[in-house]
Each structure stands twice: as C-alpha cells, then as structure tokens.
Amino acid sequence: MSWYRPADVGFKARSVLADWGYGARLLMRLFMLFGASVRRFGLVRNQIHFLGNYSLAIITVSGLFVGFVLGLQGYYTLQRYGSSEALGLLVTLSLVRELGPVITALLFAGRAGASLTAEIGLMRAGEQITAMEMMAVDPVSRLLAPRFWGGVISMPLLAAVFSTVGVFGGYMVGVVLIGVDAGAFWSQMQGGVDVWKDVGNGIVKSVVFGVAVTFIALLQGFKAQPTPEGVSTATTRTVVISSLSVLGLDFILTVMMFSI
Amino acid sequence: MERSKNDVWVGLFVIIGLAAILFLALKSANLLNLSFQPEYRIIAKFDNVGGLKPRAAVKSAGVVVGRVESIALDDKTFQARVTLALDSRYTFPKDSSLKILTSGLLGEQYIGIEAGADEKNLAAGDTIASTQSAVVLENLIGQFLYSKAAEGPNPQGSAPKK
Predict the structure, then answer these.
(1) Between B2, B28, B55, which is nearest A190 by CB?
(2) What's the CATH number of domain B39-135, 1.10.3470, 2.40.30, 1.20.120, 3.30.43?
(3) Which of A53, A64, A182, B148 is the one with CA 20 to 30 A from B133?
(4) For B79-96, how does the pLDDT look when each residue is reduced to its tens digit (9 = 90+)?
(5) Domains of chain B: which residue ranges?
(6) What element of type H or E holds B112?
(7) β-strands B57-60, B63-74: how paired?
(8) Per the CB < 8 Å rule, is A157 touching B10?
(9) How confident is the model at residue B126 (pLDDT cuts 50, 70, 90)?
C-alpha cells in the first residue's frame, strides 16, 4: 500500500471499517445469544470448566506471589513514613482496584484466550465451521456463544480469587513474617476500602476485561486464515491485542471510576 | 439437562469465586459494620467544613455513631449544610454541639458530637446550630502573624503582654 495512491488509501480505509463493523456485529450477536446460551447451559458449563477451573491454579499462585511482593514493597515504603499499619489498606486497595482485574485478565489472555483462538482457528482450518454451516447449524450460537459467556462468567470469579489470595499473601508477609500488628492490618483495611466504590468497581472492571479478552480471542480465531500459519498468527495476535486492550481499557475505566 | 462429572468441579469453582467476592465485600470492605439499621437524619450548619468528606465518621466519645451523608452550600447564609445520618440506637440531647476534628496529625477529618444537657432529644430533621468549624491552617498562621505584628516594634520583645 502506498499512501499517495487514492485507491490504496480508500481500500485500506474500507477494509479497516469492514473489520470493525464485522467485529461489532459479532459482539452484538454474542450479547443477544445470552438467552440461548442459558437455555443450553451444559455447553457454557463445559466452557467454564475449561476456561475457569483450569485457570484457577495459575491465578491462585500468581495472586499469592503478587500479595507477597506487595506486602514486602509496601512495608518498605510505608515504614519510611512511620505508617506501616496502613499495609493492609495498601495491599487490598491495589489488589482490588487494579492488580486483581488487570493481572487476571493478562494471565487469562495467555492461558485461556490463546487456546480459544487456536481451537476455533483449527476448526476453521479443518473446515469444521464450514461443515456446520452446511448442516444449517449456526457456528456463532453453537461454538462462539458458550465460550464467550463461559469466559465472561469465569473472569470476575477468577479476579476475586486473585485479590483474596493476594490479601492473604500480603497478610502472611506483613503480619506473620514482618510483624505488622494484625488488628491494625485489618482495621485500616476496613476503614479505607469501600464496598461499592472499590470492590464493586473492581468486579465491573473484571467483567469488562472478560468481555474484551474472550471476544478478541474468539474473533481472531473465527476470522483466522485457514492455514497453520494463519492459526499461529491469530493466536499471537490474540495475546498481543487483548493484553494491550486490557491495559488501555484499564486506564479508561480508572479515569471514569476513581478520578473524583 | 444432562448431568456430567464437570458439574461438581464447575460448582466448586463458582462457589470459590463467590466466596472470594463475599470475603472482599465483608472482610476487607467491612460491609457487616455498614449496618442496615434504621438511621435518622439531622442537619448541621458549619461556617467552614475544611476537608470533611461525605461518608466521614460521626463520633461521640470516640465511638462511631453515624456517617456524613452529604455536604452542600446553603446559598442564603453562605454556610456549609452538612446532613448527618445517625444510628437510631443513639439519641442525643437537643443542645448537643458538633466539632470538626482530625484523627491524628494528618488524618481524616470527622465530626465529634458533644452531648448537651437538654431533656429533649434530637429528632429527625432537626438542625444543630452550635457547631465549631474545621481548623484551617492558613487562618491559624494568619492569626499568629497578626498577633505577632500587633505586639508592635518591641526590640527586646522578651516580655509578652498579658
């Protein structure tokens, strides 16, 4: 493509617009297929099992270690100002507001999003999706919608597990290892964390990330080139695009939620 | 719908996730203390609320008895109109006074209630007039400088005027 040839520029603009339009329409359809997915909940349940249960181990371990590190680093910074009792508040607020949803979404993109893309992409490459269309089975409602809703349901639960385990990690390092007062740890936390503003917004964030990551993975798999190379490109793009969009969305959501 | 062996594991996963949300809501954000007990609202007029924020604590003798619900400017008297939501378990005499206090040197500001001696108690919608504003550091410094200047040109300056 060369920028000085109007035909090339026009074609590029048209194809970008068509891609966005295709994605937006697919997302609309997935949202509207919520009822159909609930009616055949067995399919969604299998996807929650695959996306959620199998991600539980990596989420728990990462949450624990993020909590450990937050406890150590937070204590190091806070004790300079003589306020190491606020450690519980620092650990919990950073986990519930930011780190829980964001790191969970990044791990989910790598752990589950990539496998979703590869699965759908190989179905496309093996012409299974074409075969379903031939049999008048709608691949969007049979393949994509259960995976989409499975991912959207799993993500907030995983993020909550991540934050909770992280709080316990911070407690272990801060209270058990370093010796911050346990009562102050909890009471400072309870004084500073608001149910709706902090915990609720964190859950809203993780739902939004769940929609973004799962949708990007499914879209990339669904429109992958039906070749081995095409599937591998689609998998890579899933991880890159969903990680970047999670970080971008996080900034936008943080500005909307907490900048008062 | 057919049952499958996944049911157990998916159920466990969902239960763990919901338990985590519940933990965050109850233990770290302390929803339990955010009592659903009936409250009553009273109004207080302050000349200056300083850094007081909505949801700040209202304490009496150090015990939290309510929350600041909203802060607005009364554009007739140009005072701050603070609505307090007090726990119905606690009642205070009608002539109680309010102070804006600070917890610690740099801490959050809260409202302290000092109980009066009236036999009638505050009811919902009452207005408390005897309030003491927040301490504004700039005003304090200004007063200090003013009183220093008022001592006049006293080169010795060792004996402060009584």
Answers:
(1) B28
(2) 2.40.30
(3) B148
(4) 889 988 888 888 888 888
(5) 1-34, 39-135
(6) strand B109-114
(7) antiparallel
(8) no
(9) confident
